[in-house]
Structure formats: C-alpha cells, structure tokens
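Sorry to interrupt, but I need a hand with the structure work. Could you write out one complete protein record for me, on any chain you like? Just paste the record in under my message, thanks.

. . .
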Amino acid sequence: MDQNPLADIVGTPISRQRNSRLSFEELCGFYAAFAWDVELGVIVRASGLDRSTAAHLRNAGQFRSGQTRYPRVAAEFARLGKADFSTKYLTAPLKDRLRVAKLEHDRAAAEPRSNRINFNADAYAGVHAFPNSHFGPDTKVEIVPDRGVRPGWTWRDLSPNRETDELRGDPRTEESRFAKSKAALDFCRLRFMPKDADFVGEMGFSPAERACDDSWFWSQKKLQK
C-alpha cells in the first residue's frame, strides 16, 4: 500500500475533529513533553486529547495502521534536535498546563479506584425520561461529561418546569462530579423517582432524603413526619 504523502494535511474526519483544538506549536510542545518522559495521563489532561489520539502523538514519525503518525511534528523534532525543539515549543503557558495536569493526575490516582473519573463509562450518557416522576410526567434529565476544572459526569434537568438548566454534580458531596455516567443516572433516578422505602432512618440520613432535599416532594415528606 502506497503511503499518502499528504496524510498530515488530509487526515481523516475523525482526526481533523480531534486535533482541531490544538495548534501545530501545541502539538510540538506536548510531543516534547513525551520526549522528556511525561506520563500519557498527564498529557491527556493537559492537552484535552483523548488517550488514543495522545498515544498517536507520542508515536509521531512511526508508521502505524497504514499511515505515519504526525509526520510534521516528527520532522520538526528531527530538524531541531531534542534540546532546541524543547526550548522552542515547551513554552511557559504549556509548562503551567502540564504542572496543573500533573497535580490533578496524582490526586486522581490517590483516590479509591471506584471513585476515579472514567469518561469511557458513557453507556448512560444522553437524555432519560422519567414519566412517573414526582416532579411531573414530562421530567427528563440529560447526562453529560464535564471535562473542565472539576471533571466528571454531570446531569441537567430538561423538564419544562425546571428551575435551572445548569450542569450539576452530586450535592451529597458538595456538587462534586460523578465518576461514571451510570452513577449520575442512578442519582437522578433517586432524586426524581424516590420510593417510600428509601425514606428510612433519621431525617437527612437516607440517600433519597439527601437527593430530594431541595424538592417539593421532600418538603411534603417533612410535613408528614
């Protein structure tokens, strides 16, 4: 199979979409970080690329799956050499991004495995309807990832009578994000469709009590106690 000499220009729809956020200079900067043994997970956090795309960048210049990965980056690295390449492209702002990403990466690694954010756990992403919700027959929620300062899975109320359409986390842990899409959906089910069996023990201690603490339904439950 002949190699496309313009592969780095043509690319594919997927690769163009993934890499549109980064300039050539940024790609070179992150490749320099790889050259100095920065971990893949740190590069992923700092660059915003997914793991597979970041891994392709790490293999710049290598022929993989029918094409050479990032040939322009590899050619620039070969032209300048490691030292001059790093001096030119490892800019102060990029180093700051790497430092922040390293702190976040180490903090996540120190957490229990069950609490780590997993953006690949997206089986429950999207819009979910709760036709029998205590908040009305048209209750819908959207489960979406948030890759911002506080990354994780979030939910948004799409109901006509919603108070706000902002993305929200888990109020039981001070609005931290959920580790997986299923955890976010499970919380929404508990909040919008609690069962009487969930309301047990002292006020404010059961999961449903906390999930519905700011709801009209829970205010009615309080009146019954």
In short: Residues 43 and 206 are 40 Å apart (CA to CA).
